[in-house]
Amino acid sequence: MGLILLEAFGAGAVLILIVWWTMFSGRKRGEIDDTSVHQNGDAADADDERPPT
After folding, report:
1. Cβ(22)–Cβ(15) under 8 Å?
2. What is the rounded distance in angstroms from the CA atom of residue 10 to the CA atom of residue 6?
């Protein structure tokens, strides 16, 4: 019984570690601003369906 609880707590710890890692491992200076991407014309994946602002 103790081994099952230890394994469950270990799996929970791994899950929390993965969630924590993915939450705070983003870009150093945040997300790219859409306005700067459209002004520079460097957007490879920009939405062409949106009207220009």
Report:
1. no
2. 6
pLDDT at 25: 79
CA separation (Å) from 24 to 4, 7, 8, 20, 41?
31, 26, 25, 6, 29
CB 39 within 8 A of CB 52: no
Half-sphere exposure of 21 (CA within 13 A, CB side): 6
**Residues 1-46: tens digit of each pLDDT:** 999 999 999 999 999 999 999 888 776 776 666 665 555 555 555 5
pTM of the predicted protein model: 0.48
